């Protein structure tokens, strides 16, 4: 197989926070190993995580901004070295997503996906995206994929590290 990115297969570990969807210690360690202390980091759908200079989540008090993601990205004009995303993806109850003001996952929400891609192309160089798929936004390439196995009969997660390929879209102020 000819690929231009790394792949790592690893056990996901257990979520010990008590909050469904929180990063496991394994996922935290991977993310922190990619970031450096000088990186400006935006974390969308941040949940209970404290990773990121700005953490956006509509419902969690740990977030630095408690706001709808679309509203946030429509107004935020700052440049970020990394954007981390951990959107809701395993939707067992529609009511869970209604807290986020939408009724589908990011993978199924074409409008939100387009707005995110536009935002990424203007304001970041790198994306760390944890989901049940391996998204590939326009003008980005894969650096590495981590296939995270939670065990039991749970669905695999994929942490994608994506890097900008095209500088022409990135707007410098």
TrEMBL record:
InterPro entries: DNA_methylase_N6_adenine_CS. One of its GO terms (molecular function) is methyltransferase activity. GO terms for biological process: methylation. This is DNA methylase N-4/N-6 domain-containing protein. It comes from marine sediment metagenome. The lineage of its organism: unclassified sequences, metagenomes, ecological metagenomes.
